[in-house]
Predict the structure.
Amino acid sequence: MRRVMLAFSLAAAGMPIAACSSSSASVTSPTSSKCGITATATPTSFSASGGNGTLTISTARECQWSAAAAGNWIQFGGSTEGQGADAVPFKVAANADPSVRKGTISVGDQQVGITQDAAPCVFTVTPRADSVSIGGGQRKIAVTASSAQCSWTAISNADWLTIVDGAKGTGSGAVTYEARATTGPARTGTLQIAGEAIAVTQASGCKYTIAPASQPFATEGGSGSISVTSGAGCAWTAASHVPWVAIVGGSGTGIGTVTFSVAASAMGVPARSGTITVNDQTFTVSQAAGPPCVYKLGQTSQSFPAATAGVWSFGIGTAPACAWTASSNAPWVSITSGASGAGNGLVVFTVAPNPAGNPARVTTIVTTSGLSFTIIQEAAP
């Protein structure tokens, strides 16, 4: 170019030019060898969450270039065309799929490989725990996957729970399981779904029956038994609700027997009944009355002087359940304590002075048992 301009300048000045038939000028573009391009990326490997990188382009300053990415998950943050050396930012989007993906960035005939890790599969299982009735039946568990490419399985860890549908799946889906009816105790089993342990509970299906429902006993008491029937594994316990019935053998599971004893009925105890419960079942024990009450007096009579009032007492002996009363047949004898009682007791009374000129006098204190205590007082002078 300088030669052309120089020749033009000389000709314009009228200066002689060396002999030649013609003159020419040529303009050349940068050759391909001069515009060699080198492209590198930093980094070239990304985690599943993505991130930012830089594309570095090295070439002569007069050389033009353009960049393109294969895959819409690689996005440029600056111009994709330029001249000379440059640095172009780019961004790698998050990878939602559970597989490694690879892409390229092209600059001329240069290709830079970009690799991104697979995303881990994330599952949400709903509900995380479930319950079924004692009658069993089918229930559903929903599975939500983070990607349609995520695979999962479902298995039962309990023999009474069965996977009916959805033992294997990809992406979001559902598992149908069936619980068997129960006549046994409450239980818990687990389903392993998409790596999650789902606890399934079932209420107790235990039902109890007893035979017989009641038993009578004579005054002297005795022993008895109750047959218990229930499902395998169903625990039961017997309890007496009266002190005179004692449980001898009163617990078990499934089919078994309760044994008990009934104490003899004591003197004066009326006919009575009590209950034994075996879980939710009630057994009735009835017993005849005890022997009739027998009473005894410690002494049967006492003499008193005429002039001085006396204080005296006599005892009544009988069984604890036997009640009694005492009453005076004369106004000059007063009962101060022990007018009534049960079992052994003491009747305390006072005797008033016999008025002057009164003859000797006699009276009694009678009890409900038909016994009487005689009081004799001397005549007054």
Observations:
- The domain at 123-202 is CATH 2.60.40.10 (Immunoglobulin-like).
